[in-house]
Design brief:
This protein is α/β, with parallel strands linked by helices and 245 residues long. It is built from eight helices and 14 strands. Strands 3-2-1-13-14 form a five-stranded mixed sheet. Bound molecules: manganese (II) ion.
């Protein structure tokens, strides 16, 4: 089976359209979406409309959940912007997304299989970010016997081996290539280029993973974010770094 995996679109319609056009030539058997669909200062509603129309197998990310499970007054500025632009049809769609899904021998999750707020392949401590040590990864996958695990949330494209021949793949983010976060410790995630990311995975006895980096109109997306008052997003969209580069 040939799977196209997308995740962390974050309401970046231009990046999503470019990724879908790029993968059309590669004729995947299935397209899966690992969550954080609409939250961002660009085109949340239009992104939701396109995803609802295409009907990909989609799981819920933490931002998809947080748009529904808290009052607007308790949201961060990005989710607040997003909530103001969504319609009831988007909320109904988001509310129906499962936290995880299994297709054949493949597990889909946003963060870890049990927690959409914890990175699966990266571990953040007081010293910084490192690849999750094998013992910790295996512990997080103790209830996940699938041979292929697809995750998102960290926006970093990566393929990491777990025990028992299992492979964990994060396709990287479609729509946001850098951000700063404070939990569990202050850290920066930076991909280092503005390209929209996704992955194609051929399953089988010898799985093959292709990581894609696709050009799209990131200059206009960045300009829109700046006009909306989100300089952090403007930098991230234009360069793939947290600050100006
Ligand atoms: Mn997330």
């Amino acid at each position: 089976m040939r799977i196209a995996a997308i995740t962390d679109i974050h309401g970046n319609l231009r990046a999503l359209q470019a990724v879908l056009a790029d993968m059309a030539d590669r004729s995947p058997d299935i397209i899966v979406n690992l969550g954080d669909c609409v939250s961002g200062p660009l085109e949340p509603a239009e992104t939701g409309d396109l995803l609802m129309e295409r009907g990909f197998l989609t799981i819920r990310g933490n931002h998809d959940r947080q748009l529904l499970d808290r009052p607007v007054s308790e949201m961060g500025p990005i989710d607040r912007f997003t909530a103001a632009h969504l319609s009831e049809r988007h909320r109904t769609w988001l509310a129906g997304l499962p936290p995880t899904a299994v297709v054949d021998d493949i597990l889909l999750c946003h963060g870890t299989p049990s927690d959409d707020l914890t990175y699966l392949l990266e571990t953040v401590d007081a010293h910084g970010i490192r690849i999750t040590p094998r013992a910790r990864l295996d512990a997080q996958l103790a209830s996940s016997p699938q041979s292929l695990i697809l995750c998102g949330h960290s926006h970093n494209p990566r393929a990491v081996a777990a025990s028992n021949g299992r492979l964990v793949v994060n396709p990287g983010s479609v729509g946001l290539q850098a951000y700063h976060d404070t939990v569990p410790y202050p850290h920066m995630m930076e991909v280092g280029s503005p390209h929209a990311r996704y992955a194609i995975i051929d399953t089988g006895p010898r799985p093959r993973v292709e990581f894609m980096a696709v050009e799209y109109g990131w200059a206009s997306a960045s300009a829109d974010a700046r006009r909306a008052g989100h300089a952090d997003w403007a930098h991230a969209l234009a360069g793939g770094f947290v600050g100006p580069h």
